[in-house]
Design goal:
Largest sheet: 9 strands, mixed
Strand content: 35-45%
Shape: elongated
């Protein structure tokens, strides 16, 4: 009696085997890190005072050739870092967006807003980040009732 080979016929062991194979191929790519990633940390102020709570979003400037990842850093008591957020950046030109809040929680319509009220609307600026870990100075100043964001890398 000759037994014919039958391909996978949608049985549970076949599906599990297929999922394990796909997962084994895909997962290493998810956890790989670029050796080009750097940590950006520093201080953020608004009219000379530390920003209580906020967020910095680093978006690569693709128009200037930066194809790096988008990075984020939470601001707490005027200090921030991309380390530990899993959202480091690479060097090169970036668009930086800052959102800042007063840090005084209040009860909204349906929930408590922990970060508080916005200090100002979202502000943006550009910077060319260095190729190695650096300290960034983030300053927002009010001029003619309009917040202006200035970024500088510490030497």
């Amino acid at each position: 009696m000759v037994k014919q080979f039958q391909p996978c016929s949608f049985t549970a062991p076949c599906w599990i085997g297929c999922l394990l194979l796909i997962g084994g191929i895909a997962l290493p790519g998810c956890w790989s890190e670029s050796s080009d990633q750097i940590v950006i940390s520093g201080e953020a102020t608004y009219d000379g005072k530390p920003i209580p709570v906020g967020e910095l979003i680093f978006t690569p400037d693709t128009k200037q050739g930066n194809k790096g990842p988008q990075g984020r850093a939470k601001i707490k008591d005027g200090k921030f870092t991309t380390a530990g957020s899993g959202r480091d950046v690479v060097g090169g030109p970036y668009q930086v967006e800052l959102k800042a809040f007063d840090g005084v929680a209040f009860e909204g319509r349906e929930l408590v807003v922990e970060e508080g009220k916005p200090l100002f609307g979202s502000v943006r600026s550009q910077i060319d980040l260095p190729l190695k870990t650096a300290t960034l100075k983030v300053e927002v100043t009010t001029q003619n009732n309009k917040p202006e964001l200035a970024l500088s890398v510490a030497p």
